[in-house]
From TrEMBL:
Keywords: Oxidoreductase. This is NAD-dependent succinate-semialdehyde dehydrogenase. The keyword Hydrolase does not apply. The active site is at E264. Belongs to the aldehyde dehydrogenase family. GO terms for molecular function: succinate-semialdehyde dehydrogenase (NAD+) activity.
Amino acid sequence: MAVTAQDISAQIDRVVGAVPTDLFIGGQWVAAAERIEVENPATGETLTTVADATPEQGMAALDAAVAAQVSWAATDPRERGEILRRAFELVHARAEQFALLMTLEMGKPLPEARGEVVYGAEFLRWFAEEAVRIHGRYAVAPSGGTRLLTMKQPVGPVYAITPWNFPLAMGTRKLGPALAAGCTVVIKPAELTPLTTLALAAVLTEAGLPDGVVNVVTTSRSAAVSEPIIADPRLRKLTFTGSTPVGRTLIAQSAERVLKVSMELGGNAPFLVFDDADLDRAVDGAMLAKMRNIGEACTAANRFLVHESVAEDFAQRFAARMAALTVAPGYAEGSQVGPLVDGRSRDKVAELVADAVDRGARVLTGGKNIGDRGWFYAPTVLQGVSTEARMFGEEIFGPVAPITTFASEDEGLALANRTEYGLVAYAFTQDLSRALRVSEGLETGMVGINQGVVSNPAAPFGGVKASGLGREGGAEGIDEYLETKYVGIAL
């Protein structure tokens, strides 16, 4: 049941009040001299405050992770898996609290937040099962005189930096495989959305996670706190989800210590609609690919490339669907589109739309801010967007769909690949041969054929080019937290 206007205040107080708001270091909640305000983007009002860690407290969190590493790595894989499984069950038991918490600090509608609870919790279950499937191999050397033994071992203490747009899932997608592999973690959630990670830490503790295995550092001083942690020789792994410019900086910092890194960075996803596509299915897929998380997702369709023969029909149908969406605070009855996360994000979306219109785009629906309270922007469809428009090369991160046409399969594929990014692409066609050609030709780490959502805990998530390094999820996800050791045994 959706939260009503009459009881939202009490529910907010109850849910937010239940979240610990100090730093979590070595199994203890640790106060800080300064605090960070956490804002409700639907109103601009402060929900609560959390501890603002100093660089020294960041290093204390690393000390705790290092101290716990040997014993956690030696913990039976089955026990590590059982802790993750118990955490999975606890998250589900508190699904409504987690959902409302995410809606309050990030803005997404409650139904979508509930979906993230299911999605995010699944990483805990998936990697609970993977913990007991870490294995090496045994082989006879080609020369016959040596036996080749390989084994997988945890890489060591991990520093995980998570973004604000999926507060639960981005935490579990990193913590699940790290803990399953036997790694301890210092996790730094985004300053805008720290509450969900703090609530998750409390759940992990209740599930039986030993002290020091997971440490949470909330801070407004990201660079000052992160730099000494990354520079410390005891840290052996850095994992980050966020923008490509920040990712490049972190990769450069990690190079000094030759850290193992995984980076899930920016996207500029093309959404291809070919002349033979089922347009009803394509529009359904477009709504999912664009409006998941209010468009604030690295996997969000950023460029709609539509064959010229079906472009007008597609655009009109898509615009009608977008115009019918209900924009309201995420906890309001019937809300389908919540606010953007902050004023700066909304300003950027408005700038990108204005730039596209200046270059000849036509607004079919939306194209404006909504209301004078909170950070709402109308779902928007733009037709005839120039490939020179800023939004053709930049992530929009909002509810705006730019449509550009193409005349041939080769042209569509070339436009899709005309970007430094390569996270995900979507293509709609009823021709199997074309689907295979396009899938092979797209320069992305993931492809959705006739579907607008590809994220799945059982599948490897990640990109190529400037979209990052490594994979999260799937059987591949745990390898990011393991090292391979080879032992040669002479007979």
